[in-house]
Specification:
- This protein has one domain.
- It is 76% helix and 0% strand.
- It contains eight helices and no strands.
- Helix 6 runs antiparallel to helix 8.
- The longest helix has 78 residues.
- The chain starts with a helix and ends with a helix.
- The relative contact order is 0.12.
Length: 301
Amino acid sequence: MIPFFRGQSEEKMSGRHFERSASIARGKKNVIMINLFRNIRRKLADDNKPLKYMRYAIGEIVLVVIGILIALQINTWNEDRVKKIALQEYLKNMVEGLNQDIEGRLTLFKNINEFRFYSMLYLLDISGHEPNYFPDFERDKDFVPVEWLWKEKIPTQFDEQFIKIAIRWMPITTDAAGNNKTTLDRIKDDGLFSYIEDPAIQSAIENNYGIDKFRFGIAQGHDIRKFKHDWFDAMNSAGFNAEYIKDPKEVIEWLENSPEAIAKLRNLASNAKWGFESCDVLIEDTQQLIEDLNTYLLENK
């Protein structure tokens, strides 16, 4: 029994000795580390290195910040360059579109409205009513419509064929005669309008489409449709079909004796006059805008 207890006692003593030895070792190690950090701190303090390291760290931070700012500036410059290139293409498309508007819809609607107006002056004249209802307008006695409407000057005497054509074209409305705004809308939607560096060009574009809105806007469209419907109602009430006139003499007799019909005819004539004069104004302004845009594009290649 004695050996057994002696063995246990020896094991316990041995374990306690090991733990004590390990604790002493850890303590010595901690002391060594503490002393090491104290020596480093003392050396840094002696050499004034914390200030040097702080200056170094601040310098690194400043360099990083400068690098970020330069990168942002380069990115902004690149984005501006891309947007300016896109704007140039849009403005070129705008010039092309405006030229097409002048050669196409504006000229077309100007021709139609001029023919409508002069043909209605003719109807007023041969029905015995004062054609000079428009004192601010100087009548062109040598006016010749475009060939596809009428191949010669407006007649001065009774002409059955001309009366049929005139009455057929009277209610033809042109309330959508303005310039196409697609390119301008895209420029604004893409946030590029402010990249037009010349305020005069910005104003010229806005003014052009402002003329368009005023001359061919919602209010004018409403008036045009009302005059058109009033004229159709008057003709239908008198038993005529505007699309097909069997006897032009009957129409002239009706106009001679119907002040209501004459009033509606004059409304349509006023609309036609407004229409071709509006086209003239818009064509002139659009031509100037095209010239200004071409100059701007050359100066900002």
